Amino acid sequence: MALLDIVLFPDARLREPCDPVTEVTDQIRQQLRDMAETMYDAPGIGLAAPQVGLRSRLIVVDVGSDDEPESPRRLYQLVNPEITASEGQVDSEEGCLSIPTIRETVQRFERISVAALDEQGQPITIDADGLLAICLQHEIDHLNGILFIDYLSKLKQQLIKSKLKKLAQR
Ligand code: K1U
Ligand code: ZN
How far does residue 47's CA lie from ligand 2's centre (Å)? Predict the structure, then answer.
């Protein structure tokens, strides 16, 4: 297992659309395990391949919470995830491991269905709502080079860029 370096905004690798995986090999399974380890270490509730410099359509998600012992931890390691259905709209306050210190509210679908392959290469369908639905949308966006701040006004995006620039100069 290995901890991977997290790519930070405005790195151009976060803007590259990722390539579909043609076969779920041992190498892909290792990449998924390393991504999960990196997500738990951060800590985060999701992570997408471009955030660790990989160009394949891979995400990991675990929205289980230590604060809520009732909530079971479930790690999803997904290959080629796609939203196949969506319903409703919700406001979602989000952060991103690639854009530290920034939290903003964006609009997301309330409920989604996602089709993907699991780490064994088996087809899986996830019907999600709540935080799982939001996190899946955030991670699938990463695979298409989309960041949550893209949904904000141009003015807000400018303010975020200058805040991050100042932080980087410190
Ligand atoms: O993809 C990422 O950058 C990970 C990101 C996912 C996400 C967060 C919030 C809404 C949608 C998607 C994070 O995990 S940021 C860290 C975070 O939210 C968190 C960390 C520890 C405990 C609980 C939440
Ligand atoms: Zn993110």
Answer: 7
Q: Is the pTM of this model over 0.85?
A: yes
Q: Please say if the pLDDT value at position 43 is more than 70.
A: yes
Q: 3-state DSSP call for residue 30?
A: helix
- Looking from the CA of residue 45, the nearest atom of ligand 1 is 14
Angle at 165 between CA 162 and CA 170, to 5 degrees: 130
Closest residue (by CA) to atom 12 of ligand 1? 135
Residues identified as active-site: 139
Q: What are the beta bridge partners of residue 123?
A: 117
Report the nearest-CA residue for atom 2 of ligand 1. Answer: 96
- Tell me the percentage of the chain whose pLDDT exceeds 70: 95
Q: 84, 105, 112, 99: which is closest to 147 by C-alpha? A: 99
pLDDT at 122 over 90: yes
Average pLDDT (48-73) is 85
